[in-house]
């Protein structure tokens, strides 16, 4: 599933554009960035991070894991400084009115799987 498909499914606004319209194979949802760091192990570049955390910690976590797309839920918005940092780091950001539960359900129902233990996406 690519960035444009995710945006359409979630009726999301583009906060920081993904100029490459990358493909993603998995998603991980959490507001605890320590969980993301502990759980996302394999192929983070093809994993979408879904969170309600709209501060620099989410961006730093995405950068550390080489995640290229962050979806902010509950209409959360990044402040202009963090938006600029996301652009500079090549991290696309979408914002949706969906709750985290709804966003995960919509994406899962349309074929985007969650990470499994050890990120085994078989």
Task: Please characterize this protein's 3D structure.
There is one protein chain. This protein has 122 residues and is of the alpha/beta class. The protein has one domain: Udp-n-acetylmuramoylalanyl-d-glutamate--2,6- Diaminopimelate Ligase, Chain: A, domain 1 (3-Layer(aba) Sandwich). It has five helices and six strands; from the N terminus they run αββαβαβαβαβ. A six-stranded mixed sheet has the order 1-5-4-3-2-6, sandwiched between helices. α3 links the parallel β3 and β4. The protein is globular, with a radius of gyration of 13 Å.
| Count of domain modules | 1
Q: Which fold does the CATH topology refer to?
A: Udp-n-acetylmuramoylalanyl-d-glutamate--2,6- Diaminopimelate Ligase, Chain: A, domain 1
Biggest sheet: strand arrangement = 1-5-4-3-2-6
Termini, distance in Å? 16 Å
Rg from C-alpha positions?
13 Å
CATH architectural name: 3-Layer(aba) Sandwich
Q: Treating each run of at least 4 consecutive H or I residues as one helix, how many helices? A: 5
Q: Please give the largest β-sheet.
A: 6 strands, mixed
Question: Roughly how much helix do the residues carry, as a percent range?
Answer: 25-40%
Mean pLDDT: 93
- CATH superfamily, called what? HprK N-terminal domain-like
**CATH class (first level) name:** Alpha Beta
| Main structural class | alpha/beta
């Amino acid at each position: 599933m690519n960035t444009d498909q995710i945006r359409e499914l979630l009726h999301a606004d583009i906060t920081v554009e993904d100029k490459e319209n990358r493909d993603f194979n998995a998603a991980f949802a959490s507001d605890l960035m320590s969980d993301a760091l502990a759980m996302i192990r394999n192929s983070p570049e093809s994993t979408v991070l879904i969170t309600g955390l709209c501060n620099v910690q989410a961006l730093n976590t995405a950068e550390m894991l080489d995640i290229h797309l962050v979806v902010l839920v509950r209409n959360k918005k990044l402040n202009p400084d963090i938006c600029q940092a996301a652009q500079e780091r090549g991290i696309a950001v979408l914002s949706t009115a969906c709750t985290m539960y709804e966003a995960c359900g919509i994406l899962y129902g349309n074929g985007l799987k969650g990470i499994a233990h050890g990120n085994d996406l078989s």
